[in-house]
Amino acid sequence: MVKVQKTPNNQLIITLPKKIAEFKGIDKGTEVVFREHTKNTFIIEIKKKR
Question: Which of 24, 36, 37, 47 lies at a CB distance of 3.0 to 4.6 Å from 41, suitable for a disulfide?
Answer without folding.
Answer: 37
